[in-house]
Design a protein that fits this description.
The chain has one domain. The chain is about 5% helix and about 55% strand. A hairpin with a 4-residue loop joins strand 12 and strand 13. The longest helix has 15 residues. The radius of gyration is 20 Å and the shape is globular.
Length: about 300
């Protein structure tokens, strides 16, 4: 019974994603900001690599999985930043892998840095229902389909060592329709706004609050949370809540050394499917930064 429910859910989701590009849902999205906003490039003031792996409804067979990886760095005395990212998501009958390049122009605006970003890339999509048990194998709705298509995104990012504010449209083109055509349609865009503030209470205790809002034609998705930063920034304990999926997330991150951070997150969903045994989601994160050189006080917090 559980397997049938998850297959029905995923099939419905696969039809929805034919119309609009979904923004990757990460619990540790602040550690991989390049995926949501190309203007994030270079904001770590280092050659920064981040990898995230995610397993959704991990107790079910054939559950959705995904990974994201990003590498970015400032160049030319920090005025320009470049990056590259890889995104993948897959579940029964559908997979999507994209590779994007990112460009950001950065300037100082008073005591804050303003970054304007663009990204462009190519993704491969594949619809293959051959592994599913469909009632009518001759139904043309379940024909296999695959191909390559371009996409673009843009964003703006304003930040210093205690505050950040970002706005972006990660995907400007729709997914190809049944004829393979794609195009611009602002009504189907997903608009993202992120913001956060650091309360620097002492060397051993800081509090970071964050909010991300995603607007689309289907409504507004809000997620907000906080991190307790302890023991001179070595341990990060956090939690966030996402309203549309009714998901509560617990996050633990460890700053193993100045260049390396490890993190793990667990999502508990209060939806009917999420409350079943095995309905939780796991996420692991690895970040490593090379040749750390910064001209702002504390880039690690964002």
């Amino acid at each position: 019974m559980k397997k049938h429910l998850i297959i029905i859910f995923l099939l419905l989701l696969s039809f929805v994603t034919q119309a609009q590009f979904e923004v990757p849902r990460l619990s540790q999205y602040l550690n991989n900001g390049l995926v949501n906003n190309p203007a994030y490039a270079g904001s770590r003031e280092a050659l920064s690599f981040t990898g995230v792996g995610r397993s959704i409804y991990s107790g079910f067979d054939g559950n959705p999985t995904g990974f994201l990886a990003a590498l970015h760095s400032p160049i030319k005395k920090g005025n320009i930043a470049l990056g590259v990212s890889v995104e993948n998501k897959s579940y029964p009958g559908y997979s999507n892998t994209g590779v994007y390049t990112h460009y950001a122009f950065r300037t100082w605006l008073g005591g804050m840095r303003l970054s304007l970003g663009l990204r462009a890339g190519l993704y491969n999509y594949s619809l293959d229902y051959s592994g599913l048990d469909v009632k009518d194998p001759m139904d043309r709705a379940f024909d296999s389909e695959s191909g390559f298509a371009p996409n673009f995104g843009t964003g703006i990012y304003l930040y210093n060592n205690k505050f950040f504010l970002g706005f972006s449209v990660p995907y400007l083109l729709n997914l190809p329709d049944s004829t393979g055509s794609t195009g611009f349609n602002p009504l189907s865009y997903r608009y993202l706004m992120t913001t956060g503030y650091l309360f620097d209470i002492s060397d051993n205790f800081k509090l970071k609050s964050t909010v991300m809002a995603e607007y689309s034609i289907s409504g507004i998705d809000l997620q907000g949370g906080f991190n307790f930063i302890l023991f001179k920034d070595k341990i990060w304990l956090g939690s966030l809540y996402r309203n549309t999926s009714k998901t509560l997330t617990s996050i633990i991150e460890v700053q193993v050394s100045d260049p390396m951070r490890l993190g793990i997150a667990y999502d508990y969903s209060f939806s009917n499917l999420g409350m079943m045994p095995g309905g939780g989601s796991f996420e692991v994160m690895f970040r490593y930064e090379f040749n750390f050189v910064s001209d702002i006080d504390s880039p690690f917090y964002f």
